[in-house]
Amino acid sequence: MAKPVSIEVYNPSGKYRVVSTKSMPGTRWINLLVEQDCRVEICTQNKTILSVDDIIALIGDKCDGVIGQLTEDWGETLFSALSKAGGKAFSNMAVGYNNVDVNAANKYGVAVGNTPGVLTETTAELAASLSLAAARRIVEADEFMRAGLYEGWLPHLFVGNLLKGQTVGVIGAGRIGSAYARMMVEGFKMNLIYFDLYQSTRLEKFVTAYGEFLKANGEQPVTWKRAASMDEVLQQADLISLHPILDKTTYHLVNKERLSMMKKEAILINCSRGAVIDEVALVEHLKANPMFRVGLDVFEDEPFMKPGLADMKNAVVVPHIASASKWTREGMATLAALNVLGKIKGYPAWADPNRVEPFLNENAPPPAACPSIVNAKALSLPVSKL
Ligand SMILES: NC(=O)c1ccc[n+]([C@@H]2O[C@H](COP(=O)([O-])OP(=O)(O)OC[C@H]3O[C@@H](n4cnc5c(N)ncnc54)[C@H](O)[C@@H]3O)[C@@H](O)[C@H]2O)c1
Ligand SMILES: O=C(O)[C@H](O)CO
């Protein structure tokens, strides 16, 4: 028997019961649900990661939909419990949904939502921040200052890497990878090499146009290349940022062998999912190559780091904060709530989850659609017109 979990309730007499496993930023998401006759229950348990049992207790006997978090294990057990309670909708408050067994959701006819777009630039900005922090050794230098070790300017003090004119490599040039590439190309005049399963024509056009602009102004033009393999990116780039989804094909994509292909002074950034890198191999590589640097927002066994990583001066580590801006987190909460609400109300799935702006406009009611349902096709859900 699952233990009871503490909750906060909005609109107790609402017809539809929607549970959020965590308190989420902003109030718009709560208001949108309440206005549409939902009773909203928010888990207030003082526990960062809820277990499957905790969530079963939250779902209870009657639940129309759940908004959950990427730290939770949404598999057969939870979808079966949600379906038994009459639930038809689940949304992660995240774009990544590797914590969700979509086949299990399909089996129980539960729609699975995610929150694309609203976090694209925010996440890319953190990847850019880590790139600069690693290239210019900002964390090491900050620690040095605070330790009272600075005795005056020296020619060799904290010499790092200049990005201008170097090559940035992007693995996974989807929404976030492309936004990051544009920032680094335009902001730092870097050349681009990328690898993705699909061609990113818009990104290529952007770099071409910027290169032409630079040339017309008497500067060295930037260039782009779509690599035929990921290894080509690893071998040629000076700064590499990982932005693929995590699935079976990207698990330990960067392993011992691939680390050894990279330049000795390369910089590796990961704001995707921790398991895209073999973190044990990475620690060994950092130890053996002190000029190689990494910037990590995500870790293989979050919230833990593999032994030795915390001791490495050539690693900058932050706790999975890439989407953590107020506007973005409030928007993620709104999209997640509207995914669940839309399914409960029988609305269609939005035709283009890359264009979710109409759902984020606080001055107008959101469209009558679910912003992003990843299994819309598998469940044969109707699709809205834009
Ligand atoms: N650190 C964070 O807080 C944070 C924030 C947002 C997103 N993310 C992660 O970033 C991921 C990407 O988000 P997005 O919105 O850009 O998604 P997206 O779907 O737009 O982009 C993912 C890209 O990866 C590519 N890809 C898939 N398999 C690949 C492979 N084997 N090799 C190379 N490329 C491959 C896809 O073709 C796609 O272009 C999310 O799935 C999530 O895990 C993390
Ligand atoms: O996938 C995501 O959205 C992130 O990891 C959290 O923003």
Description of the molecule:
- The radius of gyration is 23 Å and the shape is globular.
- It is of the alpha/beta class and 386 residues long.
- It is 34% helix and 14% strand.
- The longest helix has 19 residues, at 326-344.
- The strands form two sheets. Strands 9-8-7-10-11-12-13 form a seven-stranded parallel β-sheet, with helices on both faces. A six-stranded mixed β-sheet has the order 1-3-2-4-5-6.
- The model has no long low-confidence stretch (mean pLDDT 97).
- Strand 10 (239-242), helix 10 (256-261) and strand 11 form a beta-alpha-beta unit.
- The chain has helices spanning 28-35, 52-59, 76-84, 102-107, 120-135, 138-146, 175-188, 201-216, 230-236, 256-261, 279-288, 326-344, 357-360; strands at residues 7-10, 16-20, 38-43, 65-68, 89-92, 111-113, 167-171, 191-195, 224-226, 239-242, 267-270, 293-296, 315-317.
- The structure holds nicotinamide-adenine-dinucleotide and (2R)-2,3-dihydroxypropanoic acid.
- One of its GO terms (cellular component) is peroxisome.
- It comes from Chenopodium quinoa (Quinoa).
